[in-house]
């Protein structure tokens, strides 16, 4: 995690398992390793623990802004939202599929970190032939890569890059609103040119314009690579598109005669995550209401199970 002023928090990593053993050996000072028995992905419990043990102790005085993606572990826990609000932390989630444009870490830091980490792994394998990299070597390799990637220049450049993206989007929207007239395509431009210029210049184009369809089909494709709009129009008249011609194959005829019944599958579409202020009172109330409904639904399920057992 980086800050706009160019400073970094020590890295926090997640590994699958229960016991840390020596996995933390060699990590940079202040780093933290979280263990998860099911998988190495973030969960709501791990995110709350990260806030309490890693982020808040290093948070400067006053209100701070924490940028997050729209993952459910960052948005749904009422305990986490209330804890962040009580500790002057404003949580702001980004819309779906925008973190690679709006998140400073994705813009500059992560790519540099991956490059340096892979470089350290290749160097380690070269110095230790016949051995494999295990989780016991992870801390030392990450420490060396982190020292090169977590620079003040990368942190500041990440925030500058996200601001430049927003400015570019505003400029493009202004240009699009100013130029509302449709741009003519190539064929319309060639129609406006005088007949002397629009005439075919090469011998190939003259042959095509005066040739029959049989002659056109015999010519190689490379001869028409530089064909003008007049030649393209001539060929389109001689050869209409496939949609105008009957396109009946034996397979399609059989499907029309005896169509195979298809099973209708309903696909649930996930709602797109919209950028929102997660620590707002309305969002916290909404999450509390949904959790209450979830508890009621769970109680009904348990009662039904007990009735069935009876």
Sum up the structure in keywords.
310 residues, mainly alpha, three-stranded mixed β-sheet, extended, CenT-Element_Derived, DNA binding
Spatial shape: extended
Q: Give the H and E element order.
A: EEHEHHEHHHHHHHHHHEH
Radius of gyration from the alpha-carbon trace, in angstroms: 31 Å
Strand order of the largest sheet: 3-4-5
The pLDDT mean sits at 76
Largest sheet: 3 strands, mixed
Number of strands: 5
Domain DDE-1: 6-154
Protein name: (apollo) hypothetical protein
InterPro entries: CenT-Element_Derived (IPR050863), DDE_SF_endonuclease_dom (IPR004875)
GO molecular function: DNA binding
Summarize this entry quickly.
Residues 6-154 form the DDE-1 domain. The chain has 310 residues and is mainly alpha-helical.
Written overview of the protein:
One of its GO terms (molecular function) is DNA binding. InterPro entries: CenT-Element_Derived, DDE_SF_endonuclease_dom. The structure is a single chain. Residues 178-201 have low confidence and may be disordered. The chain contains 14 helices and five strands. The longest helix is centred in the C-terminal third of the chain and has 29 residues, at 281-309. Helix 5 (104-127) packs across helix 6 and helix 5 crosses helix 7. The chain is 53% helix and 7% strand. By secondary structure, it is mainly alpha-helical. The protein has two domains: 12-176 and 273-293, no CATH class; 192-242, no CATH class. The chain has helices spanning 44-55, 72-75, 78-86, 99-102, 104-127, 138-149, 152-178, 186-192, 195-198, 203-209, 213-218, 229-238, 250-257, 281-309, and strands spanning 12-16, 32-36, 64-68, 89-93, 276-277. The strands form two sheets. Strands 3-4-5 form a three-stranded mixed β-sheet. It is extended and about 75 Å long.
């Amino acid at each position: 995690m980086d800050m706009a002023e160019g400073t970094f928090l020590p890295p926090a990593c997640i590994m699958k398992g229960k016991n840390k053993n020596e996995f933390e050996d060699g990590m940079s000072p202040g780093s933290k390793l979280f263990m998860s028995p099911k998988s190495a992905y973030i969960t709501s419990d791990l995110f709350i623990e990260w806030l309490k043990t890693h982020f808040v102790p290093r948070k400067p005085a006053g209100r701070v802004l924490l940028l997050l993606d729209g993952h459910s572990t960052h948005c749904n826990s009422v305990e986490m939202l209330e804890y962040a609000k009580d500790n002057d932390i404003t949580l702001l989630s980004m819309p779906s599929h925008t973190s690679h444009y709006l998140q400073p870490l994705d813009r500059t830091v992560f790519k540099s970190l991956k490059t340096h980490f892979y470089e350290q792994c290749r160097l380690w394998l070269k110095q230790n032939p016949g051995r494999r990299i295990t989780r016991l070597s992870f801390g030392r390799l990450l420490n060396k890569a982190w020292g090169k990637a977590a620079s003040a220049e990368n942190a500041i450049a990440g925030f500058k890059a996200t601001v430049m993206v927003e400015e570019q989007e505003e400029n493009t929207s202004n240009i699009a609103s100013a130029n509302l007239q449709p741009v003519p395509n190539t064929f319309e431009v060639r129609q406006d040119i005088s007949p002397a210029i629009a005439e075919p210049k090469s011998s190939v184009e003259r042959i095509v314009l005066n040739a029959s369809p049989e002659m056109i089909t015999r010519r190689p494709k490379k001869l028409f690579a530089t064909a003008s709009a007049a030649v393209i129009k001539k060929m389109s008249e001689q050869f209409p598109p496939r949609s105008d011609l009957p396109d009946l194959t034996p397979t399609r005829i059989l499907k029309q005669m005896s169509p195979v019944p298809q099973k209708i599958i309903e696909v649930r579409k996930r709602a797109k995550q919209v950028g929102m202020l997660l620590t707002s009172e309305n969002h916290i109330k909404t999450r509390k209401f949904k959790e209450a409904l979830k508890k009621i639904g769970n109680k009904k399920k348990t009662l039904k199970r007990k009735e069935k057992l009876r």
